[in-house]
## 1
Amino acid sequence: MKKPFPETLLNQIRIVMVRTSHSGNIGAAARAMRVMGLYNLVLVEPKQFPSQEAISLASGAVDVLENAIVVPTLEEALKDCHVAYATTARPRYISSKLHTVEEAAVEALQGIKNEGQQIAFVFGTERTGLTNEEIDLCQRMMTIPSENSYNSLNIGAAIQVVSYELHKAHKKTLDLPLIQANEATDELATSEMREGFYKHFQDILFQTEFLDPTEPKNIMKKIRHLFQKRDLTASEIHLLRGVLTSINRKISHD
Amino acid sequence: MKKPFPETLLNQIRIVMVRTSHSGNIGAAARAMRVMGLYNLVLVEPKQFPSQEAISLASGAVDVLENAIVVPTLEEALKDCHVAYATTARPRYISSKLHTVEEAAVEALQGIKNEGQQIAFVFGTERTGLTNEEIDLCQRMMTIPSENSYNSLNIGAAIQVVSYELHKAHKKTLDLPLIQANEATDELATSEMREGFYKHFQDILFQTEFLDPTEPKNIMKKIRHLFQKRDLTASEIHLLRGVLTSINRKISHD
């Protein structure tokens, strides 16, 4: 396979679509894969490929279509593969363990990282799925948990969910944190700043007669609690103090 | 909302699509939702609805389309909602925490189970996503981790991934005992209550001349953000409204 794409563990995964009837689904699959960092698409006996419809539904993922390989049999598609997961709506062999897509994704990434495996996720034709003979060529069976039968899950949507779980498992494998929220840029307020704010707030409440100066405790406790549920930043305290001062001014000068 | 569907915790979740341009995407969303047991679709100003294209792409999920509600504004869509998640490609406020879809789904199901919350997941228009004003109406921001920018993720595929994570979280939630929140007696404020509070707060700031009525936006955004970091409860909103009213009275009568 040519590899014009970033070098990651995900390059050792191929998505195999068997006898796909609708070209649009091949395009949707390419898009679903690419957004999650998967680039290897193998098409077994597609009804039509390449096609304008696939290109149009691939959106920005035309390069995945260009990289796609067409083969005559599933056997050929899996030739150099260590582990293949057959996607199914329900277990057909009672004795076979049915992995969820999440379990399968985690296991696949471990196999790639620890043993350099080549992995395939195999999707059957739209209406009838994989034949028993095709399932026999795979080492594992996998399903996407859902409310109804898998048959209602569009094949593009199924490949989106599988690609998403593989992307998550990849990130976990690399032990990288997911997108870090940049909460650090704004410094937290100091205790002194917070206390100054509560004092100022309380003074306003006395002036507006919202609080009885002889018994402020309970209400002020609630106010504190409300603001302390999360950490106020210095600039937020500054803003709140500005608001209070404007109220002060209005009350005294009017 | 009429509910011809199974009674589950997922019924307290609505998927909100804002100004969707392509009717086909509405159909794909309905299908993606239904297969994962989600039935409540709210459409804010769709370009066209109902439509033949939506029905054709909905496949077996025409009942979700029939159950869909069309409203003129996002505010209306979120009126009785306790927590709304804005879906975004990347954080727009530097200081805002960005939840992954998995975290958001788990949190949402806990909120429903423990506190009976109504939850919304909000998706913007295809090309440009949600406006900053629309994001401001939501309490949380959520993203689907992916290789490229979220923009490449088709909206139907995005709703499939979100629905899939909600379905997983639902299954997990059913397996867990009910967690008693310490503050369980105090309900979270609804979107309507919060918006009423911000409006009132802004009026006060105009009266105290803290805000220039011609350019209130930036400051009000900071105020919103400050309060939205915290989950305000109904009784807290009540308390804050009381404070504002006392200031009103003082300013007008002094």
## 2
Amino acid sequence: MRVFITDTTLRKGMQSASLELTYEKRKELFFLLSSTGIHELEVGVPAHSEEERDYIKYLARSQHGDKVIVWNRANIRDVEASLECSVKKLEIAIPVSDFMIKEKLNKDRDYIVRLLKEIIPYVKSKKLYLSVGFEDVSRADREFVIKLLECIREEGADRVRLSDTVGVLNPLQTNELVKTASSFLDVEVHFHNDFGMATANSITAFLSGAKYINASLLGLGERCGITPLEEVVFYLQLIQGVHTGINVKRLYEIVNYFIDMTNIHLAPNKPLIGKNAFTNKSSIHIDGLTKSKRTYLPFDPEVVGSKAALAFGLYSEKANKLCKK
Amino acid sequence: MRVFITDTTLRKGMQSASLELTYEKRKELFFLLSSTGIHELEVGVPAHSEEERDYIKYLARSQHGDKVIVWNRANIRDVEASLECSVKKLEIAIPVSDFMIKEKLNKDRDYIVRLLKEIIPYVKSKKLYLSVGFEDVSRADREFVIKLLECIREEGADRVRLSDTVGVLNPLQTNELVKTASSFLDVEVHFHNDFGMATANSITAFLSGAKYINASLLGLGERCGITPLEEVVFYLQLIQGVHTGINVKRLYEIVNYFIDMTNIHLAPNKPLIGKNAFTNKSSIHIDGLTKSKRTYLPFDPEVVGSKAALAFGLYSEKANKLCKK
């Protein structure tokens, strides 16, 4: 079993209120991430500006150019800006909930269908790989989603991206939605973390048939961000034994380098990366750890180049005693 | 449908490497949390020390004394220390994975069964409410878990606590495990966050039949912590429309007060609580938000006394324009 990880640190990550990176840093990060063996990188929005297109052209022509995918609104102008960059893969996003269609676009369902029927054949006529992103699919009418899945498959889209735009999906809903969608075409998932469920929804999606998981370093993105790349990769590889094609030790180094590069603030208990991620404190845990690391750790942190630690305080007489030895 | 939230900030939270609270602060927090309408608070470990017992006695005699539950290892000495505190509810924890039974206790499965058959009737003879915690249930043999569920039901335990001690369970496994366990007796879940899946596993557990969710403020606990109280409560109440008995606005105030009290470090994108939790930055999101708050927010943050915000940077010309107006 194989899963493909698609990184969006360079696009969605830039929407984090805490992060701004220069184009030079974005290029550096592109090559660092490529070196982990990651499948694909969503690097930006060609329609955004001339400068953005120059940067994308540079990446598209590089040795890892075939990993580049770019983001577009569902309109011909955006697609043309992408074509100008000579990329091989396109992502097109379109709102699919009635709420978004009405409140944001002031349109109706028929408009969405017409737009897709116009734009998909256009992209495919250019011999590009196309992922169609269903924005706000979690709040969308299920029958309409099925109608759209049929439509985009018929028009020749290569995959669908299910976006939980405001992070309200729970894993059982994810399971159902992904099972349905993957009976139509390849599924990618993009989950927001407004309630802290993005990683679990991504893992559930994979177990329910999704082939692609979209994520970003440390989960950076709008508001509470999205699925943290390192969490899904480490879980899939170290716990589920699923092949992601990514070198976890290299990824761990890059995450840590990225933290230094950006000076980003992390909680000490951030999974895998926070300074306390592998630190146990209670006597009972410490007692167990002296017998075997695996008692109170999900895996040996040395696998990724980190190490287990002990902390001291209330409930940790055992640690205190050990230290006095 | 009703769910019961059991807080363990005052016990498990104390095992966070980043936190130490005095007994005075723990008392203050007990009354603050009680005032939200929370069902139960796991306040400490009576066997730990004389000082710990004095503090627990004080809480047990207070007006919210019926919300108090205390943690014990599965041995008579621990239970006697709890009895001394005049509490009405007990939690007893016992390892159930072969790995823990062997590596930590150097015992076998029969020993676990014998211990439970000795201790449960003893506790029940004292007319106490008893929750039996299955430590490391996620790595345990399923048939043995079923045998133990039968055993503790027969001996009169009031509920079982399923503990994902090293945070390796995924939501589909949670779904299966909780469905099985809740066919035997009331289920409580206690999930660690080593891969960032504690909240989603807790929500899944509830949807699969669990009646009790154990959590702590900001998810404080050993290593990466456990299920964050505010995440499960807000999701259940604001998105699922499930009654938790908790006043979410009051809870939000208390979480913020707790952050000030402890000076704890949070990531800016911490769900619900981080300074960017309700901050959108990209033009497309900001454009949507000017039409309706719900386009790019899971709920109106004013419900909990917070508010939506905008940030500026790459991809946010729209925000810049709005500000110039």
